[in-house]
Amino acid sequence: MALDTTALNRRMTHFDDHDDLWLFGYGSLIWKADFPYLERRPARIHGWVRRFWQGSHDHRGTPEAPGRVATLIAEEGATCLGMAYRITPETLRPLDVREKNGYLRELTPLHFEDGTTAMGLTYLATADNAAFLGAAPLDDMARQIAGAEGPSGPNRDYLLHLETALAELGVTETHVSELARRVRLAGEPDRCDTGRPEDDTLRVQ
Ligand code: SIN
């Protein structure tokens, strides 16, 4: 069973005395902004790639059959595009609960499209958290995502919403789009994957 990170995140007081702060979202926080924010803008963070390597026991899976959701993996020279939200520090309290299945608040510089930067926060699930699943062949990850469901709904919806949200931001990422393609195929009985090369590299394009 996964560790609840809510209490650990409450100890991260970095922005407590600020009027507002930037939160960088790269997974469900891009397409499910069910929290109050003052402003939102696309932003990038450097040195990270988006990967479906985090287990979900509480939203898109169960402890018995976890789903797979996004986390960030350090990679030199990489860039990850997401959505930045300017929020008040109080907004972090419900977000800590939403992200409690292994995600920890992490300080990160954000780069906006107009060339400006700001220090902000992101929720990061590192390899040492109890729910971390790590890398696996894309076919295996897709099968897991296609079959998993949790209190927030089917795992496939998380992936497909993210693919759509990235497309709206003008980005196609091989890792996400190849997982989505396989998950769609898994939903079509009697169709087998003809097998495109498993190019699992990711760069924001
Ligand atoms: C994020 O979206 O930034 C964190 C992971 C998630 O909630 O999907």
UniProtKB/TrEMBL annotation:
SUPFAM superfamilies in UniProt: Gamma-glutamyl cyclotransferase-like
How would you classify this enzyme at the top EC level?
Answer: lyase
Q: Which InterPro entries match?
A: ChaC (IPR006840), GGCT-like (IPR013024), GGCT-like_sf (IPR036568)
> In which domain of life is the source organism classified?
Bacteria
UniProt KW keywords: Lyase
Indicate yes or no for the key word Nuclease: no
Give the E.C. number(s). Answer: 4.3.2.7
Enumerate the Pfam families for this protein. Answer: ChaC
Listed transmembrane segments? none
Does the record bear Coiled coil in its keywords? no
- Name used for this protein in its record: glutathione-specific gamma-glutamylcyclotransferase
Species of the source = Halomonas halophila
